[in-house]
Amino acid sequence: MTTKAKIAPCLWFDKNAEEAARFYAGLFPDSRIDHVHKSSVDWPAGKAGETILVDFTLLGQSYQALNGGANESGKFNQSVSLAVTCKDQAEVDRYWAALTSDGGEPIMCGWLKDRYGLRWQIVPEIMIDMMMDKNTEKSKRAMEAMMQMVKLDIGRLKAAFEGKAAA
């Protein structure tokens, strides 16, 4: 294995690990495909010469994508998600649009499921600041507003935080 990190999350795909890794690496800055491992033998989910594992980097973090075949549940589930902290609404909108395209699905409260079934949280930085604010009333208003949203809207979150009607 040639991953640089001592711990790298390994994402289990049925047969499209390389396609998914290339999609993710193309979406985020400081991202790349580090190595595509072709199997030298047949294995339960594929044949010799096919991609078995992809080492890739997203936003500087190492990951692996494994063509492991159908797993017990057949898909990713909501018990694991990748959280992306965004600097502004444009970044929220860009990641949201890309990850929900081609079969992805919005969920709620900034969560979505992409076309491969992987769950993501697309969260503006300011929401984290609001949740950690020492003024619990302001924090509560922001949380209540977030709970009513699907894709997070910074303008509406700020308005709720400040106790103002949303624009």
Structure description:
With 167 residues, the protein is of the alpha/beta class. It folds into 2 domains: 7-71, 2,3-Dihydroxybiphenyl 1,2-Dioxygenase, domain 1 (Roll); 75-167, 2,3-Dihydroxybiphenyl 1,2-Dioxygenase, domain 1, CATH 3.10.180.10. The protein is 31% helix and 26% strand. It has 5 helices and 8 strands, in the order βαββββαβββααα. The protein has helices at 17-27, 89-100, 125-132, 136-147, 154-162; strands at 10-13, 32-38, 51-58, 61-67, 81-86, 105-106, 111-113, 119-124. The strands form 2 sheets. A 4-stranded mixed β-sheet has the order 1-4-3-2, with helices on one face. A hairpin with a 5-residue loop joins β7 and β8. It is elongated and about 60 Å long. The model has no long low-confidence stretch (mean pLDDT 92).
The CATH topology assignment of the largest domain is 2,3-Dihydroxybiphenyl 1,2-Dioxygenase, domain 1
Q: Say which CATH homologous superfamily of the largest domain is assigned.
A: 2,3-Dihydroxybiphenyl 1,2-Dioxygenase, domain 1
Structural class: alpha/beta
DSSP helical segment count: 5
Give the topology string: H per helix, E per strand.
EHEEEEHEEEHHH
What CATH first level of the largest domain would be assigned? Alpha Beta
In the CATH classification, which architecture of the largest domain applies? Answer: Roll
Task: Give the overall silhouette.
Answer: elongated
Helix and strand topology:
Blueprint: E1 10-13, H1 17-27, E2 32-38, E3 51-58, E4 61-67, E5 81-86, H2 89-100, E6 105-106, E7 111-113, E8 119-124, H3 125-132, H4 136-147, H5 154-162
Helix pairs in contact: 3-4, 4-5
